[in-house]
């Protein structure tokens, strides 16, 4: 599965949201699995979108054919668009499906990992972070993806911001020490995204 992450700064909120509804046209696309997104909790004008495709081949075919027609409705409504593609490595919790209806927030973490630490980082994700997140009340499902250049994405869906906040407060610092995150990661960024139900396809 291919995971697409788009982050942009919105300059015309009403126009952007109107254009967002046009992405319902994705539903007929071969290989399309789902899309959702919303607004950054910390930066009010920043929007995030997450799209899921069966494979890179299906995604490339869509980009060549239909993408520009669907995207035209949002022209001029945003700036500073950043698009990244990640190959699915494994699920966070089991049975990931690209559904957004039962989730309230998405936590996205974007890591650049030191070359000699990729194996350790991946192992810690599987053995330390995944079980901790999977065992947290309110954590629904998630995905761990990799891109060229030792870039990784950890996407987790939560049924409420309160539950995610509890997990952060109670466990993250302890887990980070156990996983030796500072030794593995050269740079880390991320956001909490409040999902907009009308953006779900």
From TrEMBL:
It holds the Pfam family DUF4937. Residues 2-86 form the DUF4937 domain. It comes from the Bacteria. This is YdbC family protein. It comes from Streptomyces stramineus. The lineage of its organism: Bacteria, Bacillati, Actinomycetota, Actinomycetes, Kitasatosporales.
């Amino acid at each position: 599965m291919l995971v697409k992450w788009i982050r942009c700064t919105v300059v015309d909120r009403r126009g952007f949201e109107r254009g967002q509804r046009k992405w319902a046209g994705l539903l007929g696309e071969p290989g399309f699995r789902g899309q959702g997104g919303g607004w950054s909790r910390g930066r009010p004008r920043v929007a995030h979108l997450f799209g899921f495709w069966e494979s890179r081949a299906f995604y490339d075919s869509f980009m060549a054919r239909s993408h520009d027609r669907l995207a035209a409705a949002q022209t001029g409504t945003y700036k500073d668009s950043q698009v990244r593609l990640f190959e699915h490595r494994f699920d966070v919790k089991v049975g990931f499906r690209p559904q957004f209806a039962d989730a309230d927030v998405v936590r996205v973490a974007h890591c650049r990992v030191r070359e000699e630490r990729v194996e350790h980082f991946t192992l810690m994700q599987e053995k330390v972070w995944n079980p901790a997140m999977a065992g947290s009340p309110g954590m629904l499902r998630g995905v761990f993806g990799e891109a060229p250049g030792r870039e990784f994405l950890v996407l987790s869906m939560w049924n409420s911001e309160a539950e995610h906040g509890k997990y952060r407060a109670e466990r993250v610092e302890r887990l980070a020490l156990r996983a030796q995150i500072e030794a593995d990661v050269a740079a880390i960024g991320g956001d909490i995204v409040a999902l907009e139900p009308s953006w779900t396809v």
